[in-house]
Amino acid sequence: MKKYFAELVGTFVLVFGGVGAAVLAGKHIGFVGIAFAFGLAQLIMVYAIGPISGCHINPAVTLGALLSRRIGGKDAVLYVIAQIIGAIIAAGCVLYIAHGMPGGYSAHVSGLASDGYGLHSPDHYSMAAGFVAEIILTMFFVLTVLGSTDIKAPVGFAGIAIGLALTLDHLVGIPVTNTSVNPARSIGPAVFVGGWAVHQLWLFIVAPLIGAVIAAAIYEIFRSRPDQVISTRQAERSLGSEQQERGRHGA
After folding, report:
1. Sign of torsion, CA 171 18 133 154?
2. pLDDT digits (tens, 9 = 90+) for 211-229
3. How many helices (H) and strands (E) would you count in the chain?
4. pLDDT at 226
5. Top CATH class, 2-243
6. pLDDT tens profile 73-103
7. Core-most of 7, 120, 150, 242, by most CB within 10 Å?
8. Residue 70 and residue 6: Cα distance in Å, rounded?
9. 3-state secondary structure of 72
10. pLDDT, tens digit (0-9, with 9 covering 90-100), for 108-147
11. Long-range contacts for 23-32 (Cβ within 8 Å, ≥24 apart)?
12. CA 36, CA 221: separation in Å to the nearest integer?
């Protein structure tokens, strides 16, 4: 149960930190600040809960880990459920705080940093543009997660690579869709916004999952030998000596 609770808490922190930055501080910090808020939240959680759950905090990452045989089917399903619950709780907390603004706050009118395309894209990008962007950005992010936690990757640096990858994704994607690359992150605010956010939610579920499949396929081409595959959680908590020991046994 600890690892599922860790995924709930980690996703809560990611969504509260990123969506909270957009809703509560967006006019002060701009797109760049919001991008770094998401990236920093991800980086912090990798080190905080990585040793417990592997810090997926994203259904797309969980799918990538499942396809790479780093996690079982049962755990994958329960991880996704925990992630969605954490995202919804976080979005609800941000909305509650936002209600304290002078004049209040309407999630339906202001959007609660929901992801969108067309009229609901920050720069009014089309559905097709948003779909392609989400696939590519998610592929990049999930591939970074899989590669940086590989047995051959430098130990202890995964969080930095993963956090910066998410930051870069947001720097590119915020003007296009507000950046999802994470179905749970999109579901959380959409639950409270309703209407258009729910109607457009399919794109921010389907496109990231396609991106995760592509990332897993690419990683399969150049990953370590199958007998050296370990879980993301093991990789994130391992020491250099432990990697060497696994390498000797796998040789």
Report:
1. positive
2. 999 999 999 998 755 544 4
3. 11, 0
4. 52
5. mainly alpha
6. 999 999 999 999 999 999 999 999 999 999 9
7. 7
8. 17
9. coil
10. 999 999 999 999 999 999 999 999 999 999 999 999 999 9
11. 23/94, 23/95, 23/98, 23/105, 23/110, 23/112, 23/113, 24/94, 24/97, 24/98, 26/113, 31/170, 31/171, 31/174, 31/175, 32/171
12. 31
- Identify the DSSP state of 157: -
Enumerate the domain spans of the chain.
Answer: 2-243
In angstroms and rounded to an integer, the radius of gyration of the C-alpha atoms of the chain is 18
Which tokens is 159 given? Answer: 């969080």
SS3 238: coil
CB distance 80 to 93 below 8 Å: no
CA distance 100 to 249: 58
Q: How far apart are the first and last CA of the chain?
A: 34
Do 178 and 121 contact (CB within 8 A), yes or no? yes
Measured at the CA of 27, the angle between CA 124 and CA 99, to 5 degrees, comes to 100
Token code pair at residue 177? 């869709």
Look at residue 243 in the predicted model and tell me its pLDDT: 47
pTM for the model: 0.88
Within 13 Å of residue 126, how many CA atoms lie on the same side as its CB? Answer: 3
**Distance of alpha carbon 166 from alpha carbon 4, whole angstroms:** 22
159 within 8 A of 165, measured Cβ to Cβ: no
Instruction: Give the single-character DSSP code of 112.
Output: T
